[in-house]
Amino acid sequence: MRLCYSTVITFKIQKIITMKSFIAFACLIASISAVPRYGVAVDYNDERIVTGQIISAIDDLSQSIKDAGLDPLYIKREDSSYALPVPVIFNYAAFVEEILSTGLSNIKVNRINYGVLTSRLTFDIEIPRVEFAVGASAAKATIFSNDIEGLVSGTVVIDRIRVTGNVRVSIGIISGISIRSVDIDFSLRGIESNVRLVIQGNNYSEQINEFLGATIPDTLKSHSKEINKLLEIVVLEVLNDNL
Predict the structure, then answer these.
(1) Residue 140 sits in which domain range?
(2) Whole-prediction pTM value?
(3) Taking the CA atoms of the chain, what radius of gyration do you get in angstroms?
């Protein structure tokens, strides 16, 4: 599993970026309940105050991503190595350098509305573009005296991660806020992949670019119903945990 350490790092960071995007959007929707959590009273009969608090929470989330060093994310170089006490059974050495990721904190609010009469929050939010690049990386490993080498470099661009939907709430004097329903529609415009992958002297660049640029987007589209359902479950749990 660690034969091509640089490939593992590429997929791992891309996975982190994608998961951070899911979590970010869940937090955005949960922000309707963020005001009570921070002890600030909100007049839910005033649409502007409600939407203003949500937009403020989005700005805070964006800043938190920057403060955490995730945008931009830059790693000049990282080295890794390991060997069993009998190294001919297993050992490896690898490095990655010039890792750069940008765009994760650029959360764009296309629309957020809260209807007082319907107690319904509608939203259209997106991250326009997340770019990920690896300047150079390589790995060498030995498994039972068999030598394996690989290298990875290139760029991956995730184009327009977008979430639209609505949250219906009930507000009672005694019962407080409760969630009636959550509807989510997640979409991804596409992935632009320009990755060079070589293992054992064989060039797999075409295959990896096909997988990233076509297979993943097509799979997300074909399973959009299931993905939306999963997001609705996650968002509902986040909301209930904060009410």
Answers:
(1) 5-242
(2) 0.77
(3) 22
